[in-house]
Specification:
heterodimer, A: 107 residues, alpha+beta, Arc Repressor Mutant, subunit A, three-stranded antiparallel sheet, 5 helices, 3 strands, 18% strand, B: 241 residues, mainly alpha, 9 helices
Chain lengths: 107, 241
């Protein structure tokens, strides 16, 4: 049986990208500015992570205007939802396996 | 971050804690419970003239009976109660109120930079509101008045129950235990206001009002609870902002 740590997807598991996916999943669609302030990132840093996620097909980026103000909205694709679900499942499995082994051998 | 040492259960727990924190931030940005409560509280109190419109003093005449409505005989005075003015009010008010709630949530979510999840609440509110509105206004014509456990007059107040039922959907949409607790409390208040359970418990509001205004305590109490709840949620949301 493969250890759950070996199945972790680097694209999803990275701290900021996992945060982006979590926020986008909960919010359904999230604006760039909300993500930047919530995750406490610079514009450049957030843009880089969004590009990685978009290239992996996990998010879609929609650019538009509200009045004169440009706004960028991000939402998860079906693949993004699945990737997030799988990541959470792997982390849970990792915790479960370690806790089970600690119960067997408390030393 | 993919080697096993970095992926200890402690790190995994920290990741869960961080994602939970982010989830809470999004939910707080999406919440706006105070608005539907305040608006519905005002709508409930504003229903009073329409209930009053459906009540007229008539000459007691057993040959004429209730003349298309229900008669309350109080201290020798006969009051005819007709449900449709309040029924029409509730149907129109529910459609307009839930539309306003949808606009509020969408506008607020957009300005805060998150998506809104309000459609299930608005849909449930309109659907249950329409059913209970029709039931309250035309219970006599639909032969449903006799099925009411609290009598043919109290059935006119059932739209209040529809508000509390829709609040359960709002609690689910906002994933809020506080809203769920409020919905349960408000359901109890509306059931009591409609007279369901009060007779067994011996609870009655002794306002000594004439039958022309006997509906008013129920509207004042249920509307007041919504307004107070709205104020409470507004304060809580302000504190978390």
């Amino acid at each position: 049986m493969t250890h759950p740590a070996n199945e972790i997807d680097d694209v999803v598991h990275q701290r900021v990208r996992l945060g982006i996916l979590t926020v986008a999943h909960e919010a359904r669609r999230v604006e760039f500015g909300f993500l930047r302030t919530t995750l406490d990132l610079t514009v450049g840093n957030l843009s880089q992570h969004l590009t990685v996620l978009e290239k992996a097909g996990l998010i879609e980026i929609e650019k538009g205007y509200e009045g004169r103000r440009g706004r960028t909205w991000i939402h998860l694709t079906a693949a993004g939802k699945k990737a997030l679900r799988d990541e959470i499942a792997r982390l849970k499995e990792l915790i479960r396996q370690v806790e089970a082994s600690q119960e067997k051998d408390p030393t | 971050m993919t080697d096993e040492s970095a992926l200890s259960p402690d790190i995994a727990r920290q990741v869960f804690s961080a994602t939970e924190h982010l989830t809470q931030r999004v939910r707080q940005a999406q919440r706006g419970t105070w608005f539907p409560l305040v608006l519905l509280g005002l709508v409930v109190v504003a229903a009073a003239p329409f209930y009053r419109l459906g009540r007229q003093v008539v000459t007691c005449d057993p040959a004429l009976g209730a003349r298309g409505g229900v008669e309350i005989i109080h201290k020798g005075t006969c009051v005819q109660v007709i449900g449709w003015p309040a029924g029409v009010y509730w149907i129109s008010a529910f459609v307009l109120t839930y539309a306003a709630i949808a606009v509020f949530y969408v506008h607020r979510a957009r300005s805060r930079g998150v998506g809104a999840r309000i459609l299930p609440y608005v849909g449930a509110g309109v659907a249950v509101g329409l059913v209970f509105g029709v039931l309250s206004g035309w219970a006599q014509q639909l032969n449903l008045a006799a099925m009411s456990p609290t009598g043919p007059v109290a059935v006119g107040l059932v739209p209040l129950i529809s508000i509390s039922l829709a609040l359960f959907v709002l609690a689910r949409v906002e994933r809020s235990w506080a809203v769920l607790a409020f919905a349960i409390g408000y359901l109890v208040v509306t059931l009591l206001a409609c007279g369901i359970g009060t007779r067994n418990l011996g609870l009655t509001i002794n306002a000594d009002l004439s039958p022309m205004w006997s509906f008013f305590p129920a509207l004042a109490v249920t509307g007041g609870v919504l307004l107070l709840g709205g104020a409470g949620f507004a304060l809580a949301e302000r504190r978390h902002a």
